Hints:
Strand order of the largest sheet: 9-10-8-7-6-5-4-1-11
Keywords: Iron, Iron-sulfur, Metal-binding, S-adenosyl-L-methionine
Bound molecules: iron/sulfur cluster
Number of domains: 2
GO biological process, one term: porphyrin-containing compound biosynthetic process
GO molecular function: 4 iron, 4 sulfur cluster binding; catalytic activity; metal ion binding
CATH topology of the largest domain: TIM Barrel
Structural class: alpha/beta
CATH architecture of the largest domain: Alpha-Beta Barrel
InterPro entries: Aldolase_TIM (IPR013785), Coproporphyrinogen-III_oxidase (IPR034505), Elp3/MiaA/NifB-like_rSAM (IPR006638), HemN_C (IPR010723), rSAM (IPR007197), rSAM_sf (IPR058240)
Helix content: 40-55%
Radius of gyration: 21 Å
Pfam family, one: Radical_SAM
Number of helices: 20
Strand content: 15-25%
Distance between the termini: 26 Å
CATH class of the largest domain: Alpha Beta
CATH superfamily of the largest domain: Aldolase class I
Largest sheet: 9 strands, mixed
Amino acid sequence: MNYTSYDVAVMNYPLFDKREDVSQAAEKFFKAPPVEKRAEVPLYIHVPFCTSLCDFCIYHRNLASQPERIEAYVDALLREIEMYAGEPYTCQLPIGSVFIGGGTPTVLTRDQLIRILDRLHQSFNLKGCDITVECHTQNANLEKLIALREHGVTRVSTGIQTLQHKARRDLHMAGSPDALIQWLAMAKSIGFSGVSADLMYGLPGVSQEEFLQDLDQAIKLQLSHLSVYKTAVFAYTKLYREQQKSMSPPAALNETEMRETFYQAHDKLMTHGYELISAQEYGREKGLIRFWDLTYDGYGDNLSFGPSSFGYINGYCYQNESELDSYVKKLQGRVLPVSRISRRITSKQLMERAMVMGFRRGAVSLFRFADTFGYDLKQIFSEVIHRHIKQGYVTAVGDQLILTRKGLYEQGKVSVDYMQSIFQGISNLKRKLCIGSHEMP
Length: 441
Ligand code: SF4
């Protein structure tokens, strides 16, 4: 496996710009005239702790070995929520969906989780909002799950990734396959409106057949949602370092097998009553969780709290401090913990953002684009749309441009082609470097 696609890296648009002054973040977010308004906004919280660290993981996380650091994080997070909620611009945003992820939120104690949920309810209007918490089977016990349910959580999710014993052990994934299945049954019995799981294809040591067996087993559990992620090995992961060192790394799927595995998984999910709810997520019921729909909407704000999280407010993309101590220190000084920021979005980039993000949820609406911007998107992006249709990535259905199966597999590439105002005339390699670092050339 290697850098085969942009899938993971297209997180936001426009890209960050080192020349922008992050100390002015609050001024930029809250004092500039509003760029746009829309009905609902997603809110994400990143919990950067896990009890053990899986070799392939690309997310920002720390070992949950020091309770005092976790407590300092919770205090800082509560202050971050309070600071945003204290601003007229953000306190009025109608929150449509909340996702508490990471890392593993359930490494927090029951009381810490309740404090966070209570602070969210006190700070924003969450009426009618779906709230998801990512769980780990080793620490999301019955008592915590009941507390989550009682405090308004509507859906819980866990990362299965693989049910293959050997691969789990080799990749340092905590929890046995049996414990995962039992945990999912327990979570379903509590009365959440959704229980879901993630699976990864292309993990080293897991064949195509084994992955598809795992998927069959997950389908049998009748979960409300299943996410299917392609394994991408990034240079900062332990897996990458191990692969560089090893004379005989475990077998991994090649690009053709990866593509074929995704196609088979997609078809299987479709024939078992799942619908596509974003380019990587499948649900039995549309609308049960709207987090991806709102996050990849591309037409408005994304609130994001916690270390390393990515957000978008009033025309600025931002990322928070990744390093825990820097994040905590800034908040102790009542400073927004922003480490990177984009330039303010231009009117051309607003249209590009609608496409870049829109294809992350699998489709863009021609009507909505025309209604918002007053232009026909087929004319604005005529060259790239024709090319994508010819290449078999995109098809036109009614009012929408929809990713085909091939387009879903290559969604990152499709999205990048709409970043025209910053990428025109630069090489593919340079594009990849910019996307990898999320920064302007
Ligand atoms: S439990 Fe999840 S977030 Fe934590 S290291 Fe493993 S894959 Fe990453």
